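can u do me a favor
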């Protein structure tokens, strides 16, 4: 999945990614590798709405 196929709205993107992380992936790197998503683009998009990835909880907070 290219990042272009993810939700465009940052709030929807946040919800989608956190749900995927919670339900299907042990960490952000695995999510990105499995979905062919550039981790830096994804982190940057969510950072633009003041969310950062927390490894301990495996979610953007």
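np, heres the sequence
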């Amino acid at each position: 999945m290219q990042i272009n196929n993810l939700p465009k709205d940052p709030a929807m993107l946040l919800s989608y990614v956190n749900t995927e992380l919670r339900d299907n992936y042990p960490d952000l790197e695995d999510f990105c590798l499995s979905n062919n998503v550039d981790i830096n683009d994804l982190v940057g998009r969510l950072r633009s709405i003041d969310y950062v990835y927390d490894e301990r909880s495996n979610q953007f907070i």
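The two ends are 23 Å apart (CA to CA). hope that helps!!
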